[in-house]
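quick q for whoever's on today - can somebody do inverse folding on this one?? i tried earlier but teh output was garbage lol. tokens:
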């Protein structure tokens, strides 16, 4: 009996020591991640500069510049994507450059391309540079206390003809006018929500016709403790006369270097009348300033 009691006491002691050590290790890890989170937030929300709140930026419909952007910030983006359009495949590519010449004001220039390498049929469009996009965004409200930012902006796209028609038709086919509003809030250190909305008004030069649709993009992200990485979901909704389309885009962002990030996005349409699944990859490079 004595031996059994001693064995029981020994194993109980070892188990308790292991549990205590494991609990301490987990606590230290959580504390370390919390410190890293705080340092990352502190780095963004530098008290010696104008107020800025750290927000997770959606990867598919991204922002013109960080909310609360500071003078001298710059960023390069390269994107590649593939969409199953039911009867043909669409490959997209884009190059973006964005910068902030003064605090809270951002500008962007974007060149979006569409390619259709699969066998052509009557419904397959021609490959083209979709247009020249020029955009600006101003953060008019930034509260570190409320962890909330708001901004207004405007995107102007000069529509371009397909490559095959450059010599036969007009180079520019029309304009798209897209004012927008953004509100974002961080909940604690890791949870982020953002709403991006506004009308897109397309004007076709040849027919002088206009077409208006409303875009409502809602986002929810969770930033992984101790990293710049996040996982989240982006819901892109488009409202037209007697029509509503929504694509759900699960996504993740991974830091591969100090100033280099990769974003991976999957597109799942709620109604597959126009397209099926899609995928998108965004490479983000932010030079030091």
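ok took a stab at it. sequence:
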């Amino acid at each position: 009996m004595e031996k059994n009691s001693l064995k029981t006491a020994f194993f109980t002691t070892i188990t308790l020591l292991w549990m205590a050590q494991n609990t301490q290790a987990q606590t230290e890890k959580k504390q370390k991640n919390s410190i890293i989170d705080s340092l990352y937030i502190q780095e963004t929300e530098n008290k010696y500069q104008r107020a800025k709140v750290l927000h997770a930026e959606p990867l598919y419909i991204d922002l013109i510049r960080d909310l609360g952007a500071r003078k001298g910030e710059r960023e390069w983006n390269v994107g590649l994507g593939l969409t199953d359009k039911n009867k043909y495949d669409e490959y997209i590519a884009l190059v973006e450059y964005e910068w902030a010449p003064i605090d809270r004001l951002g500008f962007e220039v974007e060149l979006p391309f569409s390619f259709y390498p699969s066998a052509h049929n009557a419904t397959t469009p021609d490959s083209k540079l979709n247009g020249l996009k020029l955009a600006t965004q101003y953060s008019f409200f930034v509260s570190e206390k409320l962890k909330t930012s708001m901004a207004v902006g405007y995107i102007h796209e000069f529509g371009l003809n397909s490559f095959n028609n450059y010599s036969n038709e007009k180079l520019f086919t029309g304009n798209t006018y897209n004012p927008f509003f953004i509100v974002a809030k961080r909940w604690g250190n890791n949870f982020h929500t953002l709403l991006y909305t506004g009308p897109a008004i397309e004007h076709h030069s040849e027919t002088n016709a206009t077409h208006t649709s409303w875009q409502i993009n809602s986002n929810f992200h969770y930033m992984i403790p101790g990293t710049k990485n996040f996982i989240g979901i982006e819901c892109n909704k488009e409202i037209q006369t007697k029509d509503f389309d929504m694509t759900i885009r699960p996504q993740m962002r991974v830091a591969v270097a100090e100033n280099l990030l990769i974003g991976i996005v999957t597109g799942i349409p709620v109604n597959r009348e126009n397209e099926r699944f899609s995928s998108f990859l965004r490479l983000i490079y932010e030079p030091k300033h």
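fwiw Residues 140 and 151 are 6 Å apart (CA to CA). also The chain has a mean pLDDT of 87. so keep that in mind when u check it
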